[in-house]
Amino acid sequence: MQVSTVEQIAQLKVEAASREAKAQRKYDELQLQLKAEAAAGEAEATRKYDELQLQL
Q: How far apart are CA 56 and CA 30, in angstroms?
């Protein structure tokens, strides 16, 4: 059975939307990871600053 051009286009659109959704999820995941790493770095810098302030 041959698939019509319309069905082929519909399938390609579904596949493209699926890839786009996967890429968006990965982007969101990486953004969260970067924010977490930045927050951890900021917390460490604050801790070191506070430690140095106590030495004064």
A: 39
